[in-house]
Amino acid sequence: MQQRVGVLIAAGAMVAGAVTAAAPAAAARPTSAPPEPGIPATAPPGPATPAVMAPALGTPAAAAPPAWKACATTSYPRLQCAELSVPLDHDDPLGERITLALSRVPHTAKTFQGPLVVNPGGPGAGGRTMAGFVAASLPAKTAAQYDVIGFDPRGVGASKPALNCKPGYFAPVRPDSVPRDTRDERVNLARAASFARACGEKYGRLLPHISTTAAARDLDAIRQALGARQISYLGYSYGTYLGAVYARLFPDRVRRAVLDSVVDPRGVWYEANLAQDTAFDARHKAFAAWVARHDKAYKLGGDPAEVERRWYAMREALKRRPAGHTVGPAELEDTFLPGGYYNGYWPMLAEAFSAYANERDPAPLVAVYKALATRDASDENGYSVYAAVQCRDARWPKDWGTWYQDNWRTHAKAPFSTWNNAWYNAPCAFWPVEAASRIEVTNDALPPVLLFQATEDAATPFEGAVTARRELRGSRLVVEEDGGNHGVTLAGNACADGHLARYLDTGELPKDGGGQGQADAVCAARAEPEPAGTAARGSRAGTSVATLPATGGAALHGMLGHRG
Predict the structure, then answer these.
(1) How many CB atoms lie within 10 A of CB 326?
(2) Which phi-psi region, left, alpha or beta, contains residue 62 (left: φ > 0; alpha: ψ -120 to 50)?
(3) What are 323's strand-pairing partners?
(4) N or C end: fewer C-beta atoms under 10 angstroms in the chain?
(5) What are the residue boundaries of the Peptidase S33 tripeptidyl aminopeptidase-like C-terminal domain, all occurrences included (predicted)?
(6) What beta strand segments (E) does 19-146 contain?
(7) Is-catalytic flag, 512?
(8) Which of 51-55, 226-230, 324-328, 450-454 has the weakest average pLDDT?
(9) Does residue 237 carry a catalytic annotation?
(10) Given 159, 177, 237, 354, which residue is catalytic?
C-alpha cells in the first residue's frame, strides 16, 4: 500500500491539473512568496513587537454606523442584523467594495464595556448566529455589559459576494481517500486540481483578497463602523489565529481578547494539518476505548484494539459496497471525524457502527452521515473560503513528492484520517494565487490575553496553546485537563466559564503559573457521555443531532463545524 507510486506534478502544469508519473522528487517548497499588499513578511526575531500597520492608498469616506434591523430567531429573539461595505483591497480603499453581514445583541446594562466581537473559526464558518449564542450563554450580568457582535467573514454566508467554487464537489460516493495504487492517486489529484482551477476561473479577482490578513482588516473596519476606540474579542479554533493576527496588526485597538482552542501560529497551515492527523487518530482511539468500555451496549468488543479492527473492517466493506449507495470509505471518515471534535456524538456513531458491524444494517450509518457529514450549499461555501484562506495565508509545498512522503509517513502511525485530510487540503498544491508569507504573531504590545485549551483537543493540539502562551506576553492559559472536545468555554464547563466571565467582567486573570507554557489554571474535563437507552437503540431512534440539547456543548460544536 505504501510503495511509492511515483505521481508527481510539474509546477508549470499545476493549475491545469496535469499529472505525470516520475521518480520521487526531493521535498521542495517555494523559496519565496510575496506578502500581501501592505503587510511585511514574517517579522525578524526581537524583543519588541510594535504594531504592523498597513498603509492605505487614498482616504475613503468615514463608514456610516450600521443600520441595525431585527433578525430574531426562536433561540435568539434579540438578534439584530446589518451590512457593512468594506474595500475588497484594503490598500485601495477607493476601489471595488464588498459587503460584510453583521449581527448584534445590544447591551442592556448601564455599565457598557463596548463591543465584544465573536468568531467561531473555520476559516469559512459563518458567525452571525454566534453573537446570539454567546450573548445567551454568558452569565446575564456579563452579556448585558457588551454589544455582542457577530459577522460572516468576507466570502462567507450572507456576506457578498459569497464563494462556491465547485458545487457538488463532495457528492458521494467519492474516491477512497487512501491511494492504493497509481490510479487512485491520479484520480484524487485530478479532483483537487479541478477544484483549484474552478476557484480561479470563477473568483480570480477575489482570491488574492481572501485571507486572514484581509479578514483582520475587516475586523478593524467593523470596529470603526461601531465607533469604538477598542474592541474585545472572543475567537474559537481558527478564530484564535484571526484574533492573533488582528492583535499583531492593531494591538492598541484590543481591549480584552479570549482565544479558545488555539491554533499553533508556527504551523500555519501545512504543518498544522499534519499535526491534526496524529491528534485525530488519537481521538479515534479514545472513541474506540469508550466503545470497548460500553461493550454491553454496542457488542463491538471489550478491547479497544478489537473495536478499531472492526472499524477498519467496516471501512474495507464499504469500499466494496457503499452503504445505501452513499457512504464509502471517504464518507465514513467524514462521518466519524466530528466525533474527534465532540464526544457528544459518540453514542450515535457507536450505534450506527454497531448496527452495520453486527447486523449488517446500513440505514443508521447513512442517517448519521446525513446528519453530520453531508454537504449542502452552505458547507460548499464554507469549504471554498476555507481553501481560499488557507492556500493564500502561507506557503504550501508545490512538489507533490513532499505531500506524498509526509502523508504516508503520518498515515503509518495515524491512519484514521490522514489521507482524507490530505485531499481536503490538496487544492493548495494547485492554487492559482501565489501564497503570502506567514504572519509572525509574537506580541508584547497587547493587554493580557486569556487562552483556553483542552489537553486532548485534536483540531488544535495542545502545543499551539503553549506556543501562544509564550508568544503573547502577559497572556494566561486555562487548561481543561484530559478534555478532548474542541471548544472549552460556553460548553458546560463551569470552571472554565467562571474564568471567562471574570475576565470579561473585570479583566481578572488567573495568577501566573510560571510561564514557559505551563498552565496558569486547570479545570477538570466534563464527564464522558453515556450510551443511549436500550429502548432507543432497539427502535433505531437512538441519539441523533436532533435530540442533542440546543445549549452548551452540542450548540457550540454545531457552530464551530468539523473542519479547520
Answers:
(1) 17
(2) beta
(3) 327
(4) N
(5) 416-513
(6) 20-21, 69-70, 80-87, 97-105, 115-119
(7) no
(8) 51-55
(9) yes
(10) 237
Q: What are the counts of helices (DSSP H) followed by strands (DSSP E) for the chain?
A: 19, 12
- Confidence grade of residue 59 (pLDDT, cut at 50, 70, 90): low
Kindly tell me if the per-residue pLDDT of 35 is higher than 60. Answer: no
The closest alpha carbon to 452, from 433, 468, 441, belongs to 468
How does DSSP classify residue 507?
-
Distance CA 491, CA 489 (A): 5
Q: Is 106 exposed, middle or buried (0-12, 13-18, 19+ CB in 10 A)?
A: middle
- Please check the confidence at residue 454 and state whether its pLDDT lies above 50: yes
- How far is the C-alpha of 48 from the C-alpha of 385, rounded, in Å? 33
The residue behind cell 491534526 is 276
Q: Of the listed 176, 399, 457, 520, which one is catalytic?
A: 457
Q: Residue 143: which residues within 8 A CB-CB, separation 6 or more?
A: 105, 134, 135, 136
Q: Please report the pLDDT score of residue 554 as a whole number.
A: 87
Check residue 13 and report its DSSP letter.
G
482 CB neighbour count, 10 Å cutoff: 12
Instruction: Give pTM, 2 decimals.
Output: 0.89
Residue 316 CB neighbour total at 10 angstroms: 10
Q: What is the pLDDT of residue 27?
A: 32
Single-letter residue type at 249: L
CA distances from 326 to 174, 303, 321, 362 (A): 9, 30, 9, 10
